[in-house]
Amino acid sequence: MKQQLITNIRELHGVTDTVQPLRGAAMDCTGLISNAWLLIDDGRIAGFGTLDTVPEVDADICEIIDTHNAIVHPAFCDSHTHIIYAGSREGEFIDKINGLSYEEIARRGGGILNSADRLSEASEDELYESALRRLRQAAARGTGAIEIKSGYGLTLDSELKMLRVIGRLRKSMPEMAIRSTFLGAHAVGRAYKGRQSEYVDHVINDMLPRVAESNLADFVDVFCDEGFFTVEETERILKAAEKYGIRPKIHANELAISGGVQVGIAHGALSVDHLERIGDEEVALLSKSDTVATMLPGASFFLGMPYGPARMAVEAGCAVALASDWNPGSSPSGSMPMVMALGCIKMKLTPERALNAVTINGAAAMDLAKTHGSIAIGKTGSVVIYEPWVPSLAYIPYAYTEPTIAKVVLAGKTISSCPN
Question: Packing angle between helix 112-121 and helix 156-172, nearest 10 degrees?
C-alpha cells in the first residue's frame, strides 16, 4: 500500500506545522481537530481535516483505517536511549533494593563499567539482534523517532562496534527515524583507571577522529556530572567535536548541580539531558537558549532520585522534552506512555504538556522537528491510534498500565501494537 486514509478519528492531536519546540503557554495546546481524517501518501502526511471534507480514495491503492471514533496523535519521539547493550543488570536492581546508591554500585565495579565489560565480549551480531528486538518493542509502543547512544564501549573498537550497530538498525527499520550519538565519555574505561585526563585525551585524539571519519554519529555526548567528567574535560571534548561539525547533547545534573547545563548551552548543545538537580540559574539560562531541557522520569522512578522540575521549567519558558533513558541499569523500559504518565503524576505536567514533551519537543531534541513530532503536510506519516474506548487524552497517562494503543503507523507502515 502506498496510501493510508485514517478516518473516523474522534480527536486528532498534534496538528501544527511548527519546526521549533514548544514553550510556555504554547505547550498547553495540542492542535486538536475533532471528528477528523488523516491521509498518508508514500510515508508522508498528504492531508487532514474534518470528516465533512474527507477525500475519496482508490481502495485498490489506499489502505483505509477506520479508528471507530478513536484518539490519534503523532508518534512518540524518544530523544535519549541506550538500547545497545549486552545482558541485563537485575543484580544491581537487588543491590538498590538493599540500599546501595547509584554511586556505591559504580564504585564496586557495577553500573556503566559492568555494561562495558559485557559489551566487549559480545559480538556485533549479538548486539544488533538484541537491540533490534528492543527497537521493535519501541515501535509497537508508538515510538516513531529515537536517539541511540554508544557509551557502553569505552574503548575505540567497542565504541565503533556500537555505532556500526546503530547504522545497521537504521537500514533494518527505515520506517523509524534513528539518531546516533557518540558517548565515549560515558565513564572512564577500565584500562585508564586513575588516569581520567589521559582517557579524555584518548576520546579526543583517537576516538573522535575515527567516529568522524566513519560518519557514524550525528551527535556527541559527555556525562558531565559529579564523579564522572568535569566541566573542563567536557569543554575539551566539545571543542574537539566542533572541529568535525558534530553537535553536542549533554548528560547534565543527574547527580549534582554540575555545570553541565552551562557548558552545554555555551557550546550550542541541542539538548541537555537528565536535569534532576537544577536551580533557578539553570532554568533561567535554558529559558533564554535554544537548548532543549530533556528530562528522564524513568530514571528518577527506577533509582528513587528527585524528578526534574518540569512544570517549573515549562512555566519559565524552557523547551521541555521527556525521554525514556532506556538502559539496563537505571531505566530498563522504553515505554513512552509510561514516560508520559510519570510526567503527569510525578512532574505535575498536564496531559497536554506531557504529550507535547514526548512528541514535537522530543523531535526538536533530535533535530527532527522538520519531519517528525506533529501533524503537518509533508511531515512523516507516523501516528499512534488508540482503542476507541479510550475516553480522553488524559486517560492515556491516567490508566498507564492498560493496553490502550490499538495500532501504530510509522512512515505509512502499519505496526502491530503491544501492551504499554
Answer: 80
Distance CA 173, CA 294 (A): 25
Residue spans per domain, the chain: 3-74+374-415, 77-364
> Which residue in the block uniquely carries the three cell numbers 585524539?
205
CATH of 3-74+374-415, one of 3.40.50.1360, 2.30.40.10, 2.40.50.140, 2.60.40.10: 2.30.40.10
Residue pLDDT, tens place only, 249-303: 999 999 999 999 999 999 999 999 999 999 999 999 999 999 999 999 999 999 9
Q: How far is CA 140 from the centre of its chain?
A: 15
Buried (b) or exposed (e) across 183-209, using 16+ Cβ within 10 A?
Answer: bbbbbbbeebeeebeebbebbbeebbe
Full DSSP string of 334-356: --HHHHHHHHHHTT---HHHHHH
Q: In the predicted model, what is the mean pLDDT of residues 183-191? A: 95
Under the banding of pLDDT at 50, 70 and 90, the label for residue 419 is low
**Domain 77-364 indexed as CATH 3.20.20.140:** yes
Q: What is the mean pLDDT of residues 94-123?
A: 85
Average pLDDT of the chain, as a whole number: 96
- The model's pTM is 0.96
What is the C-alpha separation between 293 and 272, in angstroms, rounded? 6
Average pLDDT in the 196-211 region? 98
| Interatomic CA distance for residues 258 and 49, integer angstroms | 47
Q: Which of 272, 186, 279, 182 is nearest to 229 (CA)?
A: 186
Surface-to-core class of residue 405, CB atoms within 10 Å of its CB (0-12 exposed, 13-18 middle, 19+ buried): buried
